[in-house]
Specification:
two-stranded antiparallel ribbon; mainly alpha; three-stranded antiparallel sheet
Amino acid sequence: MTFSGEPATSLGLLLLAVCCQAVSGLPLLLNKGSSLAQRAGVALMVAASLTGCAGALGAVFFPVTGTWLLPTGLPFGGLEIGVDALSALFLLPIFIVTGCSAVYGTGYWPVARHPEHGGKLAFFLGLLSAALTVVLLAKSTMLFLMGWEVMALAAYFALTTEDEKHEVREAGVLYLITAHLGALALFATFSLLNAATGAYIFPAPGSLSAAGPLATAVFLTALFGFGMKAGVMPLHIWLPSAHANAPSHVSAILSGVVLKTGIYGMMRVFSAFADPPLWWGALVLVLGCISAVLGVAYAIGQHDLKRLLAYHSIENIGIILIGIGMALIGANQGWEALVALGAAGALLHVVNHALFKALLFLSAGSVIHATGTREIDLMGGVARRLPRTALLFLVGAVAICGLPPLNGFVSELMIYLGAFNSIGAAVGLGPSLPALAAPVLALVGGLAVACFVKVYGVVFLGAPRSPEHEAGHEAGVGMLVPMGVIAACCALIGLAPGLLVPVLNGALGAYGGTLALQQGIAHLVPFGWLSVLGIGMILVLVFLWGFFARRAARLPVPVAPTWGCGYLRPTPRMQYTASSFGAILVGWFALLLRPERHREEVNGLFPVHASHESHVPETVLEKGYLPFLEYLFEKAQPVRRLQHGKLNIYIFYTFVTLVLLLAITSGQ
């Protein structure tokens, strides 16, 4: 291995972190069922996270000028790694989320209770973490694609930990198919980039021209390949089932950081073009608006707690795409402020979403661990038995709704400022699109608040709806501590967003935003006032809590069931359900969501049985992709006759193909 440029401690720390991640599953794999081996693996993951965070921050404040190169002697060149401020920004949430998830797993998935799955899960969780890091460190496209494939396979095996369940196997197969469809598109992307640059490396920012069909082909294949991984609607079909059926700490990694590799790839490829056409930015922004609105609309109609959170991942990927679309439009129009606000808002939301979505999935895992179900309508009154989990889930809910004083508010505000910045400066429909994103963000924020009011009200408040699923005891320290660490990160970014200004400026510089090098993002965003606002809100909340707590201590507090609308004998089933909370909002989007209702009417004076059920299907998959694939399968029946299942026939096919290829090439 050779090093070109100035030696860097940061890159060495990151390589050490990769090694620790990759071997973290070996102790438990070699000593199955050992709690000591599980703790040793977790210690390696924590060491990797601490080392990796130090290396990533070092790369921001002490930029690395060189790369490590491992010669291979193959036509595609060597395997090259390096780190800059852009990859460092994406690395930070990876190390935080994977480290906290590993610790969480000791309480949520203790090997003593899961000896048959523990070794497999630990090994592939570590391998997935290492592959994520390699993808972000790769400077040669072949190393990137190798890491991408390992990431896909490790995620599949971690997702299908409980492979004895039919729904888990189905979710895993769907994920694996879509992951490789996206990978095929990326092979096309990098082949086209090689045709444009003559090298198997990522192009430098602004080094390519966007004119011509070759650039268009690169853009479209990258948007499809990376969009499939990121879960951009309508390429999101794998995401809801995968996140719902994976173990909760695996869901936190899938949603928090695996999706962001798609965003990272988009930003790397898009920033390579100096003059992106207007329609590039418009298409990305429109896809972002669709993903954001429909993602939260689908979430409102869900009854499965983890599937609901999965659809909110699509919503937040949409918000990130809105920021990227703004940056592309700004680059086309020469608006440096729009480039900086759009790209910086998207980058900060990458970090924020990784944190608050991981917190929500881990909190949901604590609830599922205590109740034994993912069905929202079977829960209720969980906050009484799990008060700390309820508080941590509330922190995540406030953050994902984009409300102050937590981190989601800061990144969404930056994208809002980008939208407002384009008002008055744009002439024509295309350049005006960033301004139209503001009402979309407002709609998404309102719907997100409504959705989490539903979730929190049905799950944590009221009375238990099902005796067999009444909440058990609070999560242990091993689960609460990592949740608390992530919640603290959410609060820190919300209360002191100025701490991330150097990270954002460095990432903007690596992305290609010239304004970051001239004035910095702090010139455009009032980070100081945001801190004042956040701290002021915290003080007001503390004062109000103290006031009402003292008042409640002086007054008698009667204990009685919730008013049952006049019924003489109310039961826990006579409470608002997830369906009733979201019925009106689901009705607004009924044309797209296509909700299904099954009702048995009340008949006669003494009815025997009556019921009402509602269900929002995965419309894109069930009403779009699957019927189309069934049609193709039916039409392809004549071709399938060529598949005899006999090895000698397949060898004959191979021989005929080689003869034809030789005949074609010999005539050239």
